[in-house]
Automatic annotation (TrEMBL):
Keywords: Coiled coil. GO terms for biological process: CENP-A containing chromatin assembly. Residues 6-40 form a coiled coil. The keyword Cell division does not apply. GO terms for cellular component: chromosome, centromeric region; nucleus. It comes from Acanthisitta chloris (rifleman). Signal peptide: none annotated. This is Centromere protein P.
Length: 188
């Protein structure tokens, strides 16, 4: 009986040690991401933030003006969502590598286009000297019943590593998918 209790406790201790190890790795990862900024970059960001708060950059004069501009931006966003059919639900960005003139970031973006859900994962390599960005890895996940139809243009977009091709294709496909679905519902 005591052996069973000891084994249960030992298993619990091992599980907790593993959890501590995972959390420590995540903490070190976050610390590395934050410490990869130089003091100069941090000071520039603080000054820029202070200027924006004080209104030197954008011409903000009062909180009511900020609220008005925020409402305008929300209206514009709603218009764009209705116009394009895209609704982004989440975005995350993680810096994988930062050198003097090169930054590699991993991005995750999920959303819907009309009724089709999608999730993108891509690595973006930014070069400081050229002021250009290149997608080095693109993975597209779609939730759809018509896997073969969607998979053709998804695989082409992944091969070309072209977000523009993906967004154009899914926009057109999702719009016609909605029309087909509504037509079939009408005849049922």
């Amino acid at each position: 009986m005591e052996k069973n209790i000891c084994q249960v406790y030992e298993a619990e201790i091992q599980a907790l040690e593993e959890e501590i190890k995972v959390l420590t790795e995540k903490y070190e990862e976050i610390q590395q991401e934050y410490t990869s900024f130089s003091d100069e970059e941090i000071l520039k960001s603080i000054k820029l933030f202070q200027r924006e708060i004080l209104g030197e950059n954008k011409g903000y004069k009062s909180p009511s003006n900020l609220i008005f501009q925020l409402e305008n931006l929300e209206t514009d966003l709603l218009f764009l969502m209705k116009f394009t059919g895209f609704q982004f639900t989440s975005h995350s960005k993680k810096t994988l590598e930062r050198t003097g003139n090169r930054t590699v970031q991993k991005n995750r973006l999920s959303g819907k286009c009309h009724s089709l859900s999608f999730q993108l994962e891509f690595q973006l390599t930014k070069m400081q000297e050229n002021v250009s960005s290149v997608i080095t890895d693109l993975k597209i996940m779609m939730e759809s019943e018509e896997g073969s139809d969607v998979s053709k243009f998804v695989s082409r977009a992944e091969e070309c590593r072209s977000l523009l091709k993906f967004f154009r294709s899914i926009s057109s496909y999702a719009e016609w998918h909605e029309h087909r679905r509504n037509t079939f519902l009408h005849f049922k």
